[in-house]
Amino acid sequence: MVCDAIISSALGPWPLALTPRYEFKLMTGIYIHIPFCKTKCPYCDFYSFTPSDTQKDSYLKAVLLCLSSYKDKVKDGVDTLYFGGGTPSYFGGERIKKVIEYVRENYNLTDAEITVECNPSSVDEELVRCLSEAGVNRISMGMQSAVDNERKALGRSSDRRQVENAIRLFKAHGIDNISLDLMLGVPYQTRESLKESLDFIISQNVKHISAYMLKIEEGTPYAEMSLPLPDEDEVCELYLYTSDYLEARGFEHYEISNFALKSFESRHNLKYWHTEEYIGIGPSAHSFFGGERFYYPRDFASFLENHAPVPDGKGGDEEEYVMLALRLKEGLTEKGFYERFGKSIPTEISERAKNFEKSGLLTVTEKGISLTKKGFLLSNNIIAELLY
C-alpha cells in the first residue's frame, strides 16, 4: 500500500478549467509566517533559521509594513489570524502582541480565531500572559510524540513534563482551545508506543489533534541518515489505528490529518480546504486573494527589503476546488459545487468515483463524493484519477 495521503504534492496542470462564478464575500484569513527556530529539527524543510534579537525586531517592522499594504484591500473583515512557523513562540510574546494589536486597529477583526504555534520548550509565564492579553484564543503545540526515544530521534528539545506544564499555563490564563501535533511513522514508533502518545494526549483534555505522517524531505539531515522507520504498511496501520482510537473518544476525523471535538475544527485551516481567501505574510508564505495566488520567496533579506509578492496564477478553479474539498470528511458536495460554479459535479468525475467506491476508497451519494479513511491514505492518486 502506498501511503501518500499526508504528502502535499502538486498534481501538475489539470485539463479542466472553469472560472468560478462565486464572488468572495466571506471574511479573510491572515497567516503570519515566523521564520525563526532556536534549533532546526532534522526532518523539517520549512523556511526557518536562528535569528538575533535585532533580526526579530527588523522582522516585526517588515510584517507591520506588509500588513499596512493590504488593509484597504480587505473589505469584509478578518475572522482568522494564524501565526505559524518556524516557532512563533520563539519570536516573543510582546512582538506577537504588537502584530495582533495592529491587525485589530487596522482591520475589522470580528469574532476572530487567533492561533499561535508554540514549541513547549519556549513557553513560559511571560509569553502566555502576553498572548492572553493580546486575545490569542487558540494554541497549536508541536508535541510530535510523548515517548522519549521518539522525541529524541525527532530532535525535539522538550519532554512530556514541559508539554504538560505548557498546557497548564495556557489553561490557567483562559486559553483552553489547544491543539497538539502528533507524528506518525517516526523512528522507533510501534503501535504500543503510539498508544502511549495517544493516551497522553487524551489525558491532557485538548480540543484538537493534528496527526502527520513523517515525510523524508531532500536537503534535510534525515535524508542523509539510515533511520529505524516503520515500513509503509505499518505506517498505514498506525494511521488507521490513530483514527479509530480518536473517533472512539469523541474526536471527528474531519480532514485527512486533523481531528477535533465538536465545534473545535481549525477555522483558519478550513479556509484553505474550502478555497476561501487568505493572505500569507512572510518569506515562504502563500496567499489566495482577489482570485489570485501569490507568495513571498524563501528569502529573509529579500522580504525585509522588498515586500512585493510573486504572482502564482489564478486560484479557485474547478480542479483546485475538487482537490481541496476531498481532503475533508464531508468531501465534494453537490451543494457546495453548485454554489461555487453554478453546475453539478461533472458526470465524468462522478463516474470515475464509482470505480473507487467498489474498492471501499470512496463513497458516492446524491449529496456528493467523499473519501473513506482508507481512501485518505491514497488521496493524491485518487484525486489525480478523478480529474484526468
What does the model show?
This protein is α/β, with parallel strands linked by helices. The protein has two domains: 1-20 and 331-388, no CATH class; 28-272, Aldolase class I (TIM Barrel), CATH 3.20.20. The chain contains 15 helices and 15 strands. The strands form three sheets. Strands 7-8-6-5-4-3-2-1-9 form a nine-stranded mixed beta sheet, sandwiched between helices. α7 links the parallel β5 and β6. The longest helix is centred in the N-terminal third of the chain and has 16 residues, at 53-68.
Oligomer category: single chain
- Overall radius of gyration: 21 Å
Predict the CATH topology of the largest domain.
Answer: TIM Barrel
Order of helices and strands: EHEHHEHEHHEHEHEEHEEEHEHEHHEEHH
Instruction: Name the CATH superfamily assignment of the largest domain.
Output: Aldolase class I
Number of helices: 15
CATH-defined architecture of the largest domain: Alpha-Beta Barrel
CATH C-level class of the largest domain is Alpha Beta
Strand order of the largest sheet: 7-8-6-5-4-3-2-1-9
**For the residues shown, what is the average pLDDT?**
89
> Approximately what portion of the residues adopt beta-strand conformation?
15-25%
Helix content: 25-40%
Q: State the shape.
A: globular
User: In terms of structural class, how would the helical and strand content be classed?
Assistant: alpha/beta
Total DSSP E strands: 15
Please outline the major beta sheet.
9 strands, mixed
Spans of 5+ residues with little confidence (pLDDT < 50)? 1-21
N-to-C span: 22 Å
Keywords:
20% strand; alpha/beta; 15 helices; 2 domains; 388 residues; 37% helix; three-stranded antiparallel beta sheet; nine-stranded mixed beta sheet
